[in-house]
Amino acid sequence: MAERIGIYPGTFDPITLGHADIIRRGSKLVDRLIIGVTTNPSKNPMFSTEERFAMVEREIAQLGLKNVDVIGFNALLVKFARKMNANVLIRGLRAVADFEYEYQMAGMNQQLDDDIETVFLMADVSLQPIASRLVKEIALFGGDITPFVSEAVCDDVVARVDEVGRLGDY
Prior knowledge:
18% strand; Rossmann fold; alpha/beta; 42% helix
């Protein structure tokens, strides 16, 4: 049987406990899981691609997953998947709104290459509200992000907020 290679793509700006949950669970479904750290300028990243890549590598090391690799890419996901010989795309879902977007993306990816399957994993119930965008917003307004990210990622985010300055004064 051919090796099952999966890709879990994302910007991971920053990587959250929700991401880590999907990575941990997704790694059980494939022989090799590639965490594809990508760029998405429309998301206005807080961290550079290199910083996000390093953050994800550090978090993977903490999880102790031996079948997980981190690879950066800046290309169409299907092209990246082909290059990596991947046959599975893993996507995390938090809410119905995620499903609508992800369902459309899965359909488009299937049109581009019907040999690559998309597998949706529901986020753990306790982690469903977590979104990188909200973590950054909470941090920028001086809120506590420790329930949403690891201690090391929290330190990274707080340090970046200290560099750029907090928002609001209440």
